[in-house]
Specification:
The chain is an alpha/beta fold. Helix content is 40%, strand content 11%.
Length: 414
């Protein structure tokens, strides 16, 4: 197996970048116990109530516009998603308005910008008119009912549930069509809720299927390991413990862990999925030069921290920054990025050579423990593991043949 990545790959991905995520501020008006920047974790920059300077954002946008207007831009869809993240992004609304105003005043003909935001909704009542005007897609963080949301408290330790729900209800009642089409929910699974209670709350109250995420188990402080494990819950186990397991799984579809696994298997091993016309009309090429399920750098998104660090996404530790941006411009050395990835992949090459599930691997290298030393892939499968995995998939399909057609017809590969 030969790993292949060069500076041309980086340039191509930047030219076709689909999403920029700005960490608008590291300040927050909540203090959630399990926050990725909270007491459990140590792999992030110190929180200092800082705002991302608008000059940094403009420098980055100017840098990327040069790529978007180049000949390497071959994207069939001109949309670029400008995403605002925190902390709580509504605490720095001035930055958000300035970014949007800059893009409106300096149009890029090669791209169309659309906006989204992850918010805790505490300030939603103040800014919802503007968000609706600019057609934001909103992802609202809420863990279910009042008891489920007990870890989401303000900086004084007071519950946030009533305030959040009051603002969400106001948005729904004021802009019902917008709410139906542009608002979604994200819940964190922990020891004060379950997949079933979360699912029921959002379905009954808002007629929505919320995304449910497990606590990130990387970057845990050694002195918090025990408390973290007491708080952590596994989504698959929680779903199996549900009283109405099969009904909920059907309703959640690709939000369900089992269906996510099934999708990955069918899309990679069925032989009937084509990502573009070239694959359909010509022989599909095996990906023999890429190991693990790690994305190509900037293949999906670019994340910019409040300190100007540039990362492939917001889900990995800040120590893995690939570059920086400040008011003087973007400092991103493509050759250095190539060398960094090559160095990491070299550590995993022998494991990947022996793994039977390389085609459907979803393991990101940046979420492996001891990456700088001797990483061990959590998703490694020997022949026996893979045979059991394949049999579980086929057994499920034998018992639920209708789900094969549902996945093949409804799930879009991105």
């Amino acid at each position: 197996m030969k790993f292949f990545l060069n500076t041309s790959n980086i340039s191509y991905q930047l030219s076709n970048l689909r999403q920029i995520v700005f960490e608008v501020t590291d300040a927050c008006n909540l203090k959630c116990k399990y926050c990725a920047y909270g007491e459990f974790y140590e792999d992030y920059d110190k929180r200092e109530n800082k705002n991302l300077p608008i000059e940094d954002a403009i420098a980055l946008l100017d840098y990327l516009i040069q790529f978007w207007q180049s000949d390497q831009n071959v994207s069939f869809n001109k949309n670029v998603y400008i995403s605002f993240y925190g902390g709580e992004p509504l605490l720095n609304m001035n930055f958000i308005k300035q970014v949007i105003q800059y893009l409106e005043d300096n149009p890029c003909t090669a791209r169309h910008f659309v906006y989204n935001m992850t918010t805790n909704a505490i300030l939603l009542d103040r800014y919802m008119d503007y968000l609706v005007e600019k057609n934001f897609t909103l992802l609202i963080s809420l863990d279910g009912n009042a008891q489920n949301t007990a870890y989401r408290v303000d900086t004084l330790g007071n519950p946030s549930f009533e305030k959040i729900v009051r603002n969400v209800d106001m948005l729904r009642d004021t802009y019902p069509d917008y709410f139906m089409n542009k608002v979604n929910f994200a819940a964190v699974l922990h020891n004060k809720n379950s997949v079933e209670t979360i699912h029921r709350f959002f379905k009954d109250k808002y007629q929505k299927i919320a995304s449910i995420g497990e606590l990130n188990n990387m970057g845990i402080r050694p002195d918090k390991q025990k408390e973290f494990m007491q708080t952590y819950r596994n989504a698959s186990e929680s779903l199996r413990q549900s009283e109405h397991y099969e009904e909920i799984e059907k309703e959640r579809f690709v939000q369900s862990p089992n269906f996510q696994t099934l999708c990955a298997f069918l899309h990679q091993y069925s032989g009937f999925v084509y990502r573009n016309y070239n694959e359909l009309l010509f022989e599909k090429h095996k990906k023999s030069n890429w190991i693990t399920g790690t994305c190509l750098p900037f293949n999906r998104k670019m994340f910019v921290t409040v300190n100007g660090k540039i990362l492939p996404c917001e889900r990995i530790g800040h120590q893995f920054a690939l570059g920086t941006v400040d008011k003087n411009g973007v400092h991103l050395d493509s050759e250095e990025v190539v060398q960094r990835y090559s160095y990491y992949f070299a550590k995993l090459e022998n494991q990947c050579k022996s793994c039977y599930n390389t085609k459907a691997c979803i393991q990101c290298i940046f979420n492996l423990p001891d990456l700088e030393k001797e990483p061990v892939c959590n998703g490694f499968m020997d022949k026996n593991d893979f045979d059991q995995y394949r049999e579980r998939i086929l057994s499920f399909l034998r018992n639920h043949p209708e789900d094969y057609y549902r996945i093949m017809e409804e799930v879009i590969v991105v």
